[in-house]
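Rather than argue in generalities, we reproduce a single protein record, letters for residues, whole numbers for local backbone shapes, just as it appears below:
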Amino acid sequence: MEREAVLEPALIEPPRRRALDDGPAVLVVNTRSRSGREAFEKARAALADRGVPLVESYALSRTERLEHVLERMTQLGARRILVGGGDGTLSCVVAKLLGRDVTLGVLPLGTGNDFARSLGIPADVEAACDVIANGYTARVDVGLANGRPFLNAASLGLATAIAKRLTKRLKQRAGKLAYPVAAAAEVKDLQHFHVRIQADNEELELDALQLVVGNGRYHGAGNVVSKDSQLDDRRLHVYAITAPSAANGREGTGLGQLQDVATLARVALSLRSGEHEDHPAVTSLRAVRLYVEADPVQEVNADGELVGHTPMRFEVAPAALRVYAPAPS
């Protein structure tokens, strides 16, 4: 079921320009990210080789320290903040960069790296440094969940349960398999919830297994939010996987549980291609603003981090972030 808000046409991709002089650059690497510790020295050397001078560089393991460094560097006039880490690190960084004349450089060192994937930034450290050195930038939207910035997606239900299970140890040991491992562990306790969504000028209610509110194109380590979602289209793309057990009166039964799991499995198979929106159990919509209530109350995960509980308001900050991106093809 597709619901479309009336909005200006989306761009095919974020328009990109080449910045000739962005001023002093600072490198900050989260050494708690999956490959952060070994990437720090490699990134410093690669940037130097490419003529990107660093006024300061930091290898940090604590979020509080990361936030302090970013605040101090931006106050001192740093114009280029180059960050190595996963999506959770980048989401934390964005909160400090909004409203400032700063360009973000991304070195994708996490498990999912969905923001880099949405931009087309390669996972290899040296290739990501090439993107920064080439100097092309794009303006992208930032999602807000009760005012807290996120780049990729916020979610309720199964995706949040998976995020809670994705411990640092699991990510380090399982790598890209961490997501399917965590998902398999959570499915046995699958529970649906009733959700009411106010989207721009319309409202809908449904019983859902998972609700995803996307700002970017990808979430969950490469799952597609929507085939036509872009980082600069000034809207949120939303999909919900509904629970067949609630629709046919079998909720709370063993057969109902099997139906829900089977539906989730079929939808999951199409998430990589974006074909999930064609599944009859999926409801999708687009909107500039959303207000979401759930019964029972649901925890909300944004870019892999738990950010609060429902009710929650979601909106878009259009073109709020300048970021290095690959040169236009």
Observations:
- Residues 1-12, 177-182 have pLDDT under 50 and may be disordered.
- The chain is about 30% helix and 35% strand.
- The CA atoms of residues 141 and 319 lie 4 Å apart.
- The two ends are 34 Å apart (CA to CA).
